[in-house]
Amino acid sequence: MNISLRQLRAFLGVAASGNFTRTAQRLHLSQAGLSATIRELESQLNVRLFERTTRAVVLTEAGRSFLPSAELAERELTSAAARLREMGRQEGAALKLAFTPLMAANVVPETLRRFRHRHPNVEVEIIAGGPMEIQQLAEAGEVDAAFGAFFTKVSGLVRKPIESSGLLAVYSPGRYQPVPSAPGREDTTWEMLRGQPYIALTEDSPVQQVSEDALFRQGIDIAQRMTVQHLDTALGMAEQGFGIAVIPAFAQHACVRYQLAFSPISPTTSFDFSYVMRTGAPLHETLADFAELFKQVMARD
């Protein structure tokens, strides 16, 4: 007999809800996959666990008898797995890392591919969220490190610098054109945004804070402003011609997916990317190596 945690969770989910569809959704399975898992468990136990009718799914007598043991086994296995994961994190054999969504989509996949080549046995869990959200996760010790541009200093966090990045103006090809560059220069200027619709991020975004400061210093008036929460949303809006968005230079590879043109902005405005971790938490070799690979991918070395 080889009963798995997956089978126990499927059994307990259906037993609690009395519904295969809702349980499949909660467990992120197809209904056919959930049904197959239950059939596997019934085959191993050599009993029927559920009576299925057009109106309800109820436990059989064998199912009711098996329920307390299944609940105990699932609790014990889940608890043991959590303890082992925590031990792995403490020893550097597992990493739980948080990123802003654009980083998670455009820098993390290649970083993780390189990292797994070096550390095939290290388990890595990725979480995506806004800058403040992931910083709070690091502060609470719920992740080993959070990667992003953090302007607010928190006494309980240690900051490790990674790389500086400039900014790009991104826009739908044919709708907007860069300001002609000075002789010998290939970049554009903030003047490109003068009198044009602007796709802005929310005020808690480090990219937006840097951009707003530069627009103010350059005396640039915006014709119309659309505010969105995430950089990916800004890219999608720019693709549809709603205006010009400003993104970190490291994310220029995302412009290909969105069919966007981009131009470096000058005068150059840069800001630092770093990762933060809880004060007193050990900096394991695996985390330091991941950060170094992350830096290389940001620069596309």
From TrEMBL:
Pfam families: HTH_1 (PF00126), LysR_substrate (PF03466). Residues 3-60 form the HTH lysR-type domain. It comes from Pigmentiphaga humi. This is Hca operon transcriptional activator. Transmembrane segments: none annotated. GO terms for cellular component: cytosol. The gene is hcaR_3. Keywords: DNA-binding, Transcription, Transcription regulation. InterPro entries: HTH-type_LysR_regulators, LysR_HTH_N, LysR_subst-bd, WH-like_DNA-bd_sf, WH_DNA-bd_sf. It comes from the Bacteria. Belongs to the LysR transcriptional regulatory family. GO terms for molecular function: DNA binding; DNA-binding transcription factor activity.
